[in-house]
Write a structure and sequence with these properties.
Structural class: alpha/beta
Radius of gyration: 16 Å
Number of domains: 2
CATH architecture of the largest domain: 3-Layer(aba) Sandwich
Largest sheet: 6 strands, mixed
Number of strands: 8
Distance between the termini: 10 Å
Order of helices and strands: EHEEEHEHEEHEH
Oligomer: single chain
CATH superfamily of the largest domain: Flavodoxin domain
CATH topology of the largest domain: Rossmann fold
CATH class of the largest domain: Alpha Beta
C-alpha cells in the first residue's frame, strides 16, 4: 500500500470530480489516498520532506492556461514530485474533440505546463471536460456558447454537457496505480 496525493485545481468542479474518481480507483487498489485542492494543500506537505509515495495532479484550462495556483504548487514541490511516481492530467474542451488539431491543442497545454514548471511526470493525460452552462454568469455563458459553437460542441445553454470519458479516466488511474505499485516493491 502506498500513500498517494491526488491534488487538483478546478474552476467549475469538473476537474475536482475527475480527481475524486482517480482517488476512488486508487483507494479501491488499497492505497492510502489524500485528496486535496492545490490552493490549500495538506499541511503535512513540506518542500523539504515529501511524505507521499506517488502524486497525481490535475488542472483545467481556462482562457488558454491552467490555474496559476496549481503551477505555483508544482514549482514549490517539484523536487519531491520528480522523486516519486507522478502523473498530470489536463482538463479541457479541446480534449473533447477527436480531430488531430484539437488533440494537438490539448497536448500542447500539457507540454507547456510541464516545461514551465520543470516537472517530469511519469504520465500525462488530456481529459475532456464539461460545459456547465448552469454555473456560468451571463457573460461567461455567452462566451462559452460562442466558443462551443465554433468548436462544434453543444450550445443549448439550458443544459450542461459532460464530455469526460470515465473509462478513459479509469484507465489512466489504473496505469498510475500500476506504476506506484511497481515502484513500491
Amino acid at each position: 500500500m502506498a500513500r498517494v496525493l491526488v491534488c487538483y485545481g478546478s474552476s467549475e468542479g469538473q476537474t475536482a470530480k475527475i480527481a475524486d474518481h482517480i482517488g476512488d480507483v486508487l483507494s479501491e487498489a488499497s492505497h492510502d489516498v489524500v485528496l486535496s485542492t492545490a490552493k490549500y494543500p495538506p499541511s503535512a506537505l513540506t518542500s523539504s520532506e515529501f511524505a507521499y509515495d506517488g502524486v497525481v495532479i490535475g488542472a483545467s484550462i481556462h482562457k488558454g492556461s491552467h490555474q496559476g495556483y496549481v503551477e505555483e504548487f508544482v514549482r514549490e514541490y517539484v523536487d519531491g514530485l520528480n522523486r516519486v511516481p507522478s502523473a498530470f492530467f489536463s482538463v479541457s474542451l479541446s480534449a473533447a474533440k477527436s480531430s488531430p488539431e484539437a488533440r494537438s491543442e490539448s497536448d500542447g497545454y500539457l507540454r507547456e505546463f510541464v516545461a514551465e514548471t520543470d516537472w517530469e511526470p511519469d504520465l500525462t493525460h488530456a481529459v475532456a471536460g464539461a460545459l456547465k452552462y448552469s454555473e456560468y454568469g451571463f457573460l461567461t455563458r455567452f462566451v462559452m456558447k460562442r466558443i462551443a459553437g465554433t468548436e462544434g460542441l453543444d450550445t443549448d445553454t439550458d443544459h450542461d454537457y459532460e464530455y469526460t470519458d470515465w473509462e478513459d479516466v479509469e484507465t489512466f488511474a489504473i496505469e498510475f496505480e500500476e506504476l506506484v505499485s511497481t515502484r513500491a516493491t
